[in-house]
Design goal:
single chain; 316 residues; mainly beta; 4 domains; 6% helix; 36% strand; rod-shaped; DUF2793 domain-containing protein; DUF2793
């Protein structure tokens, strides 16, 4: 008797020495395990097969294979043995074969698997024409995988990207004209970033991260205040007559509630506070816009192009 599927010989019950029958069964099992064949479809037996070599016989076999079409042939102990195998791997092309009603079918070639197109470490498999597997060779060092609109490609990371405008530690990138990337240089110690006329800038901020107004010494006889003076303490030291002009909003983007502190140092000449075109400076009660040595005022923006002058502008 033998097994139903692979015709493996059973050892009869009560056999005194089962070794012969058992060894025959093991030999059949060995033939049908991990079937890797030398070739598929040959009709002529090889001249000098290796011991244990297996073959899938073709459909019109001759010689020692005659009458064994589509069988699995094994050469062992100088004898050919034939089996009804159902699947095998062909060592000649590493394809997987299955035996059906019409004989052996190359499942790999028929679409049951995919032939590997890669040849080099780092290659990728890419869908080619009609989705056929295609090799995408590994890109150059630092390249990135991206799309050119048609297929995947490797390219330098700056292609189609943004050129870095920064040059110094602490710089940031801001949107320039039409959103073009522009460099905003790192501000000075204690400065804060604020928006002036729709543009991000760094400046000193009295009462914010800078607890005291910085002292700016003006030694010339003329100074026009700008937004960079916001929150500053401007000290005029020139012994001659001087002027301090408050620029109009159209030329300086003054922020609401801006303050500038003005002082005429001891020994300084008279300082005249001068409004720019369209600017109103509201003098203190009983005061003027002329300051002499030792006087101090605060210029407080109360509206666009209107400032209150707070402090001493006449002798005590």
């Amino acid at each position: 008797m033998s097994s139903a599927n692979n015709n493996i010989t059973f050892v009869p019950e009560n056999t005194i020495d089962p070794a012969a029958g058992l060894n025959e069964s093991i030999s059949i099992i060995d033939a049908l395990l991990q079937i890797a064949v030398v070739s598929v479809g040959d009709n002529t037996p090889p001249v000098s097969p290796a011991s244990g070599a297996r073959y899938i016989v073709g459909t019109a076999p001759t010689g020692a294979w005659a009458g064994q079409a589509n069988k699995l042939a094994r050469w062992l102990d100088s004898t050919w043995t034939f089996f009804d195998a159902r699947y095998a791997v062909n060592l000649a092309n590493v394809h997987f074969y299955v035996r059906g009603g019409a004989g052996w079918v190359d499942v790999t070639a028929a679409g049951g698997g995919m032939t590997n197109p890669m040849t080099t470490l780092g290659d990728l498999i890419l869908g080619g024409a009609s989705g056929a597997p295609t090799r995408l060779a590994i890109g150059a060092a630092t390249y990135v995988l991206t799309s050119n609109g048609t297929t995947a490609v490797w390219q330098a990371p700056t292609s189609g990207g943004m050129t870095n405008p920064m040059t110094t530690e602490g710089d940031i990138i801001v949107g320039g004209a039409s959103g073009a990337p522009a460099r905003l240089a790192i501000g000075a110690e204690g400065q804060v970033a604020v928006v002036r006329s729709g543009v991000l800038v760094y400046e000193d901020q009295a009462g914010g991260t800078v607890p005291f107004a910085p002292v700016l010494t003006e030694s010339t006889t003329s100074r026009t205040l700008s937004v960079s003076d916001a929150g500053d303490y401007v000290r005029f030291t020139n012994a001659g007559a001087s002027t301090c002009t408050v620029a109009q909003q159209s030329s300086e983007a003054w922020a609401a509630n801006t303050e500038v502190h003005i002082r005429v140092a001891p020994g300084g000449g008279n300082l005249t506070l001068t409004p720019g075109s369209g600017v109103t400076l509201n003098t203190p009660s009983g005061g003027t816009l002329v300051m002499s040595a030792g006087m101090s005022v605060t210029l407080k923006r109360v509206a666009e192009d209107e400032w209150d002058v707070i402090g001493q502008t006449v002798a005590a």
